[in-house]
Amino acid sequence: MTDCIFCRLINKEIPSYKVYEDEKVCAFLDLTQVTKGHTLIVPKQHVQDIFEYDETLAADVFSRIPKIARALEAAFPDMAGLNMINNNKELAYQSVFHSHIHLIPRYTKDDDFSMQFLNNHGKDMSEEELESIATQIREKVDA
């Protein structure tokens, strides 16, 4: 895809700060560096989001994550945690429409990054409503 910035990075048409690359994925620093070491893991195959993954691509991409996460932990001994984020579609804050996974190292509670789940709508649902939601999903898992 010629207008995709991540495809251009993968094809070395524009520079990046690569931290890992093999035949299936490329990992490089996110230029925003939300925290030191903020890394993106990108499949080399252009897919827009997680909804376009098949089992093979999912295995290829997700099997590399622990290796890169451990490298971050080894490189930054002061790292106290790690957020793994994957935004899918614009409403969910995806801004580059080539699937990618953020690994965001955490150093302190004051490292200027926050992820909080502020709403607990489950407390307002009955057991029947929750079971209905679970059933709707279960019926589609293998459909």
TrEMBL record:
<feature type="active site" description="Tele-AMP-histidine intermediate">
    <location>
        <position position="100"/>
    </location>
</feature>
<dbReference type="GO" id="GO:0009117">
    <property type="term" value="P:nucleotide metabolic process"/>
</dbReference>
<dbReference type="InterPro" id="IPR019808">
    <property type="entry name" value="Histidine_triad_CS"/>
</dbReference>
<protein>
    <submittedName>
        <fullName>HIT family protein</fullName>
    </submittedName>
</protein>
<dbReference type="InterPro" id="IPR036265">
    <property type="entry name" value="HIT-like_sf"/>
</dbReference>
<dbReference type="InterPro" id="IPR001310">
    <property type="entry name" value="Histidine_triad_HIT"/>
</dbReference>
<dbReference type="Pfam" id="PF01230">
    <property type="entry name" value="HIT"/>
</dbReference>
<feature type="short sequence motif" description="Histidine triad motif">
    <location>
        <begin position="98"/>
        <end position="102"/>
    </location>
</feature>
<dbReference type="InterPro" id="IPR011146">
    <property type="entry name" value="HIT-like"/>
</dbReference>
<feature type="domain" description="HIT">
    <location>
        <begin position="5"/>
        <end position="113"/>
    </location>
</feature>
<dbReference type="InterPro" id="IPR039384">
    <property type="entry name" value="HINT"/>
</dbReference>
<dbReference type="GO" id="GO:0003824">
    <property type="term" value="F:catalytic activity"/>
</dbReference>
